[in-house]
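User: Second chain of the day. Same drill as before.
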Amino acid sequence: MDIRGSAGLPCTDWMTVREEQVSGDKVILCFGDSNTHGTVAMDSVMDRRRFSKNQRWPNVMATELDSGWEVIAEGHPGRTAVFDDPVEGAHKNGLTVLPSLLETHRPIDLVIVLLGTNDTKARFSANAFDIAKALERVVRAINSSDAGPDCRAPRVLLAAPVPVVETGPIAPMFEGAAAKARALGPLLAQAAARCGAGFIDLASVAEVDPTDGVHLSAGSQAAIGRAMAETVRAMFS
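Assistant: Same format as last time:
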Protein backbone atom coordinates (compact mmCIF):
# COMPACT_ATOMS: atom_id res chain seq x y z
CA MET A 1 0.00 0.00 0.00
CA ASP A 2 1.32 3.44 -0.95
CA ILE A 3 0.41 5.66 2.01
CA ARG A 4 1.30 9.30 1.54
CA GLY A 5 2.35 11.74 4.22
CA SER A 6 1.59 15.42 4.57
CA ALA A 7 4.37 16.33 2.14
CA GLY A 8 2.90 14.03 -0.51
CA LEU A 9 5.77 11.53 -0.14
CA PRO A 10 5.13 7.79 0.23
CA CYS A 11 5.43 6.35 3.72
CA THR A 12 7.95 3.51 3.39
CA ASP A 13 9.85 1.23 5.74
CA TRP A 14 12.34 4.02 6.41
CA MET A 15 9.67 6.63 7.12
CA THR A 16 6.80 5.47 9.27
CA VAL A 17 4.03 7.95 9.88
CA ARG A 18 2.24 7.58 13.21
CA GLU A 19 -0.34 10.19 14.04
CA GLU A 20 -2.80 8.27 16.16
CA GLN A 21 -4.03 9.92 19.33
CA VAL A 22 -2.06 8.62 22.31
CA SER A 23 -5.16 9.02 24.43
CA GLY A 24 -7.29 7.03 21.99
CA ASP A 25 -9.94 9.77 21.83
CA LYS A 26 -11.67 10.33 18.51
CA VAL A 27 -11.22 13.89 17.26
CA ILE A 28 -14.02 15.97 15.76
CA LEU A 29 -13.26 19.26 14.02
CA CYS A 30 -16.27 21.59 13.79
CA PHE A 31 -15.61 23.79 10.76
CA GLY A 32 -18.12 26.60 10.72
CA ASP A 33 -19.05 30.26 10.90
CA SER A 34 -20.51 32.54 13.56
CA ASN A 35 -23.08 29.98 14.67
CA THR A 36 -20.21 27.58 15.48
CA HIS A 37 -18.33 30.46 17.09
CA GLY A 38 -21.37 31.04 19.31
CA THR A 39 -22.32 34.55 18.22
CA VAL A 40 -25.43 35.84 19.98
CA ALA A 41 -28.21 37.26 17.79
CA MET A 42 -27.19 40.85 17.05
CA ASP A 43 -29.32 43.80 18.12
CA SER A 44 -27.00 46.15 16.19
CA VAL A 45 -24.33 45.78 13.53
CA MET A 46 -21.67 46.41 16.21
CA ASP A 47 -22.93 43.71 18.60
CA ARG A 48 -20.08 41.31 19.43
CA ARG A 49 -21.61 39.17 22.17
CA ARG A 50 -20.86 35.46 22.36
CA PHE A 51 -22.50 32.60 24.23
CA SER A 52 -20.54 31.05 27.07
CA LYS A 53 -18.55 27.96 26.18
CA ASN A 54 -21.00 25.45 27.60
CA GLN A 55 -23.88 27.00 25.61
CA ARG A 56 -22.26 26.63 22.17
CA TRP A 57 -23.35 23.66 20.11
CA PRO A 58 -19.89 22.02 19.77
CA ASN A 59 -19.59 21.94 23.57
CA VAL A 60 -23.15 20.71 23.99
CA MET A 61 -22.30 17.93 21.54
CA ALA A 62 -19.12 17.12 23.46
CA THR A 63 -21.10 16.82 26.70
CA GLU A 64 -23.65 14.55 25.03
CA LEU A 65 -20.91 12.32 23.57
CA ASP A 66 -19.15 12.17 26.95
CA SER A 67 -15.76 10.46 27.19
CA GLY A 68 -13.78 9.14 24.25
CA TRP A 69 -14.21 12.24 22.08
CA GLU A 70 -12.25 15.46 21.64
CA VAL A 71 -14.32 18.23 20.04
CA ILE A 72 -12.50 21.18 18.46
CA ALA A 73 -14.54 24.24 17.48
CA GLU A 74 -13.23 26.31 14.56
CA GLY A 75 -16.01 28.84 14.05
CA HIS A 76 -15.12 32.08 12.27
CA PRO A 77 -17.80 34.78 12.04
CA GLY A 78 -18.43 35.66 8.39
CA ARG A 79 -16.74 32.51 7.04
CA THR A 80 -17.87 31.43 3.57
CA ALA A 81 -17.35 28.15 1.77
CA VAL A 82 -15.15 29.42 -1.05
CA PHE A 83 -15.68 33.17 -1.47
CA ASP A 84 -13.25 35.98 -0.71
CA ASP A 85 -15.40 38.62 0.96
CA PRO A 86 -15.05 41.96 -0.89
CA VAL A 87 -16.29 43.86 2.16
CA GLU A 88 -14.90 42.02 5.20
CA GLY A 89 -11.76 40.54 3.66
CA ALA A 90 -10.34 37.55 1.81
CA HIS A 91 -9.58 35.82 5.12
CA LYS A 92 -13.28 34.85 5.34
CA ASN A 93 -12.75 32.21 2.62
CA GLY A 94 -13.14 28.82 4.29
CA LEU A 95 -11.52 26.76 1.55
CA THR A 96 -8.35 28.84 1.79
CA VAL A 97 -7.85 28.27 5.52
CA LEU A 98 -9.05 24.64 5.54
CA PRO A 99 -5.71 22.93 4.75
CA SER A 100 -3.91 24.65 7.61
CA LEU A 101 -6.69 23.75 10.06
CA LEU A 102 -6.63 20.12 8.96
CA GLU A 103 -2.88 19.98 9.49
CA THR A 104 -3.12 21.84 12.82
CA HIS A 105 -5.57 19.39 14.37
CA ARG A 106 -4.64 16.09 12.71
CA PRO A 107 -5.22 13.24 13.13
CA ILE A 108 -8.93 14.01 12.80
CA ASP A 109 -11.61 11.33 12.75
CA LEU A 110 -14.50 13.54 11.66
CA VAL A 111 -14.93 17.02 10.20
CA ILE A 112 -18.36 18.59 10.65
CA VAL A 113 -18.91 21.23 7.96
CA LEU A 114 -21.55 23.80 8.92
CA LEU A 115 -21.26 26.61 6.40
CA GLY A 116 -23.40 28.23 3.71
CA THR A 117 -25.23 30.96 5.59
CA ASN A 118 -22.77 33.73 4.73
CA ASP A 119 -22.65 32.54 1.13
CA THR A 120 -26.31 33.60 0.79
CA LYS A 121 -25.36 37.27 1.31
CA ALA A 122 -26.35 39.56 -1.56
CA ARG A 123 -22.73 40.63 -2.13
CA PHE A 124 -21.79 37.18 -3.48
CA SER A 125 -24.64 36.89 -6.02
CA ALA A 126 -24.63 33.10 -5.61
CA ASN A 127 -27.77 30.99 -5.95
CA ALA A 128 -28.51 27.90 -3.88
CA PHE A 129 -27.12 25.56 -6.54
CA ASP A 130 -23.77 27.36 -6.62
CA ILE A 131 -23.57 27.51 -2.82
CA ALA A 132 -24.17 23.76 -2.63
CA LYS A 133 -21.46 23.16 -5.24
CA ALA A 134 -19.10 25.37 -3.22
CA LEU A 135 -19.73 23.28 -0.11
CA GLU A 136 -19.24 20.12 -2.11
CA ARG A 137 -15.84 21.48 -3.07
CA VAL A 138 -15.03 21.91 0.63
CA VAL A 139 -16.05 18.31 1.35
CA ARG A 140 -13.95 17.03 -1.56
CA ALA A 141 -10.94 18.94 -0.25
CA ILE A 142 -11.30 17.12 3.07
CA ASN A 143 -11.76 13.81 1.26
CA SER A 144 -8.50 14.35 -0.62
CA SER A 145 -6.51 15.22 2.49
CA ASP A 146 -4.35 12.95 4.65
CA ALA A 147 -5.46 14.56 7.92
CA GLY A 148 -7.17 11.47 9.32
CA PRO A 149 -5.70 8.52 11.18
CA ASP A 150 -2.95 6.61 9.35
CA CYS A 151 -2.68 9.29 6.63
CA ARG A 152 -6.25 8.64 5.48
CA ALA A 153 -8.88 11.31 4.99
CA PRO A 154 -11.17 12.15 7.91
CA ARG A 155 -14.83 11.30 7.62
CA VAL A 156 -17.15 14.23 6.90
CA LEU A 157 -20.56 15.24 8.21
CA LEU A 158 -22.11 17.95 6.03
CA ALA A 159 -24.79 20.02 7.75
CA ALA A 160 -27.38 22.17 6.02
CA PRO A 161 -27.59 25.37 8.07
CA VAL A 162 -30.69 26.69 9.78
CA PRO A 163 -32.43 28.85 7.13
CA VAL A 164 -32.12 32.59 7.61
CA VAL A 165 -35.01 35.03 7.91
CA GLU A 166 -34.64 38.54 6.51
CA THR A 167 -35.24 40.62 9.61
CA GLY A 168 -33.36 42.78 12.09
CA PRO A 169 -30.29 45.02 11.81
CA ILE A 170 -28.33 42.86 9.34
CA ALA A 171 -31.26 42.11 7.01
CA PRO A 172 -29.92 44.37 4.20
CA MET A 173 -26.78 42.22 4.09
CA PHE A 174 -28.94 39.13 3.55
CA GLU A 175 -31.39 40.56 1.02
CA GLY A 176 -32.77 37.63 -0.99
CA ALA A 177 -31.07 35.08 1.28
CA ALA A 178 -34.14 33.43 2.77
CA ALA A 179 -35.25 31.70 -0.42
CA LYS A 180 -31.71 30.51 -1.16
CA ALA A 181 -31.28 29.19 2.37
CA ARG A 182 -34.55 27.23 2.22
CA ALA A 183 -33.41 25.58 -1.03
CA LEU A 184 -30.03 24.46 0.33
CA GLY A 185 -31.12 21.38 2.30
CA PRO A 186 -32.00 19.03 -0.60
CA LEU A 187 -29.04 20.24 -2.66
CA LEU A 188 -26.60 19.59 0.19
CA ALA A 189 -28.11 16.16 0.81
CA GLN A 190 -27.30 15.30 -2.81
CA ALA A 191 -23.79 16.74 -2.48
CA ALA A 192 -23.13 14.67 0.65
CA ALA A 193 -24.31 11.52 -1.11
CA ARG A 194 -22.01 12.17 -4.07
CA CYS A 195 -19.05 12.62 -1.72
CA GLY A 196 -19.76 9.73 0.61
CA ALA A 197 -20.33 12.10 3.55
CA GLY A 198 -22.87 12.02 6.34
CA PHE A 199 -25.65 14.59 6.24
CA ILE A 200 -27.93 16.43 8.65
CA ASP A 201 -30.48 19.12 7.80
CA LEU A 202 -30.67 21.56 10.70
CA ALA A 203 -33.86 23.14 9.34
CA SER A 204 -35.72 20.35 11.12
CA VAL A 205 -33.76 20.84 14.34
CA ALA A 206 -33.70 24.57 15.15
CA GLU A 207 -34.78 28.05 14.12
CA VAL A 208 -32.91 31.34 13.92
CA ASP A 209 -33.42 34.01 16.55
CA PRO A 210 -35.80 36.66 15.13
CA THR A 211 -33.62 39.39 16.65
CA ASP A 212 -31.40 39.27 13.55
CA GLY A 213 -32.73 36.32 11.54
CA VAL A 214 -29.28 34.69 11.19
CA HIS A 215 -27.92 33.68 14.58
CA LEU A 216 -29.25 31.19 17.09
CA SER A 217 -30.80 31.33 20.52
CA ALA A 218 -29.27 29.36 23.37
CA GLY A 219 -32.08 26.85 22.95
CA SER A 220 -31.27 26.35 19.27
CA GLN A 221 -27.56 25.99 20.04
CA ALA A 222 -28.43 23.24 22.52
CA ALA A 223 -30.81 21.50 20.10
CA ILE A 224 -28.16 21.45 17.39
CA GLY A 225 -25.56 20.07 19.81
CA ARG A 226 -27.87 17.22 20.78
CA ALA A 227 -28.78 16.44 17.17
CA MET A 228 -25.15 16.48 16.11
CA ALA A 229 -24.22 14.08 18.92
CA GLU A 230 -26.95 11.67 17.87
CA THR A 231 -25.79 11.79 14.25
CA VAL A 232 -22.14 11.30 15.18
CA ARG A 233 -22.96 8.28 17.34
CA ALA A 234 -24.90 6.77 14.43
CA MET A 235 -21.99 7.37 12.02
CA PHE A 236 -19.50 5.64 14.32
CA SER A 237 -21.71 2.85 15.62
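Confidence is low (pLDDT under 50) at residues 1-15.

User: Great, on to the next one.
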